Amino acid sequence: MTVELLSIAVALLAVVVVGLLIVVLALARQVGVLFERVAPMGALITDSGPAIGESVPRFELTALDGRPVTIGSHGGLHGGAGDGRSQLLFFLSPDCPVCKKLLPVLKATRAAEAAWLDVILASDGERSAHERFVAERGLSALPYLLSHELGVAFRVGRLPFALLLDGAGVVRAKGLVNNREQLDSLFTASELGTPSIQHYLDRAAAG
Question: Which residues form the signal peptide (predicted)?
């Protein structure tokens, strides 16, 4: 009798295990379908500041290390006009954890896109605090600007915030960037000629 009860219990357990496996497989399939349907989100565009396709004011500034930097029309790291290089302007703060996480990505971007792009860091506040930040994080290769006026001009209210400017000082992409994918989305949006990845996907879905 005991053997028969044990056999019945084992059989019931086997049925339960098989049922659980079927449920898990079904859930996995649904998660896969949901993943395919959810569109990748790019940088979060803000309505304030210069719009996509708009020329930005020209700024003649000096980086922490003394090098001249021109932001805007025909900007460059040497202050000269006419070099036509694009600029990735990244607003950050030494107290911003997400900004710190993106610093290796910015360094890699600078190295990979050096032929056509200047990566420029921007912030404001006490100079000594930023000099320590640059030394601690190994940012000496990147121009580091301290300019309250720059943040006001671009209406930077939250960090980290990035703008991609072409050689004529026109905004090609911008937005809040919290990870590498959102930062990369600025370049993708610029290549596609669209304000943002989400705008492109929405337009494609509507069409």
Answer: none
